[in-house]
Write a structure and sequence with these properties.
Two copies of one chain form a homodimer. Chain A has a seven-stranded parallel sheet with strand order 3-2-1-6-4-7-5. The first copy, chain A, is built from ten helices and seven strands. The first copy, chain A, is about 40% helix and about 10% strand. Chain A is elongated and about 85 Å long. Chain A has two domains: about 150 residues, Alpha/beta knot, CATH 3.40.1280.10; about 60 residues, no CATH class. With about 240 residues, the first copy, chain A, is of the alpha/beta class. The interface between A and B is large, with 68 and 68 residues.
């Protein structure tokens, strides 16, 4: 079940919009807001959502984090730095795995832009999510934290996300076509003394064969290279210009 | 080796700053800019970088993508949507894995905010990176695309993998050497009318570039192919026999 994204005391409407956009990019649609600073709805959220209006329209507002996650079986609190907490700390990847395998509804809770979640907020969660980040430069904003969690969740999601090109690449040309190309090279190179001296000819042919075998060119590509060779075999002065 | 992040024709300084922040969060520091729309430095970048000044200060500006990736053995182009490309398409996770295991320097290339990379830019890359995203709402901004790639890379960077003691394969030649080979082909083919008719010339050049980019030839192989081309350019009757 897709996790609920809970923003606790978010400050800027723009960031709420960006979080919505980040969510929808990876198929998440359920946002809950705990006492947003500037009220709700917030006119700055829409433009920043860049079309993810459905997330904003369905967002619900809650008086407390406890109320916002009341129906959730699994509450994960995101924190930038580890504090003196005695809860399991997960990466976004591990959390996505846990959420995917969980029975019941999960929530991922994000704190205010500037300060992050308070200790009392974290106390409601069973686990902590911390993004492993450059220890010398931890500067992840709200929408970025949301997108990393949503992205990791989407990897597990049964949702039909666009998969990178299922469209298969053409297979390498059959060996006979490759041989034809290699033979074509050799036929042209032979009278141009490429295989001179003869003591090196075997090794040179082998090198050429290896180079031409490496690409795994498909039959279209082999055909194109045959055309290139035919052109190269012409004398420049034979040309139309 | 950490990948280089290349932003091609970025429009807003603010987005360059955000990309820098996203990079440094996950330990990436090398940014290259190809003809940023508003020049460089850009006063809007600093505030958006939120402290990632070191990335902006070290950023270099380049006149073309080819120049920006000239010293990179592995060029990955990010695209939002599938096009009719015949290159391997990786998720950020798969790309991070590939980059971590690669010999030599890798570049991840991002297009302008509004339009993404042009086909000619993608043609320089050996692989495509596409983030699997909600097919009904694909709205990933530049900094978000950068942060997902940087985040995935950082997962691998944290782990010190024991390098196998097997002699590694030579890495692909740096992009500049590949460009030299492509240029050599074009120089020979031009006067032989290969690019005729002119209406097809752009597409034909692109096809040739893609075919020659696919192999990932190392510098020895590229050198050998240059020798092959020099031989092919000779007239058969010039030969000793």
């Amino acid at each position: 079940m897709p996790p609920v994204i809970v923003l606790v005391r978010p400050q800027l409407g723009e960031n709420i919009g960006k979080a919505a956009r980040a969510m929808l990019n990876f198929g998440l649609t359920e946002m809950r807001l705990v006492t947003p600073r500037d009220g709700w709805p917030n006119p700055a959220a829409g433009p920043a959502a860049a079309g993810a209006d459905i997330v904003l329209e369905r967002a619900t507002v809650h008086a407390s984090l406890a109320e916002a996650v009341a129906d959730c079986e699994h509450v994960h609190a995101t924190t930038v730095r580890k504090r003196g907490v005695t809860k399991p700390v997960l990466t976004p990847e591990q959390a996505a795995h846990a959420i995917h395998n969980a029975q019941g509804r999960s929530a991922i809770v994000f704190g205010p832009e500037r300060s992050g979640l308070e200790t009392e907020d974290v106390a409601l969660a069973r686990t902590i999510i911390t993004v492993p980040i450059n220890p010398e430069f931890g500067s992840l904003n709200l929408a970025q934290a949301v997108i990393l969690c949503a992205y990791e969740w989407s990897k597990h999601a049964a949702v039909e996300l666009a998969q990178p090109s299922i469209e298969p690449l053409l297979p390498p040309a059959p060996q006979a076509e490759l041989e034809g190309l290699i033979g074509h090279f050799e036929t042209l190179l032979e009278p141009r003394d490429y295989f001179f001296p003869h003591s090196r000819a075997v090794a040179t042919r082998l090198t050429l064969r290896n180079i031409l075998t490496k690409p795994g060119w498909n039959h279209l590509e082999v055909r194109t290279m045959r055309g290139v060779l035919s052109a190269l075999a012409r004398r420049p002065e034979d040309s139309r210009d």
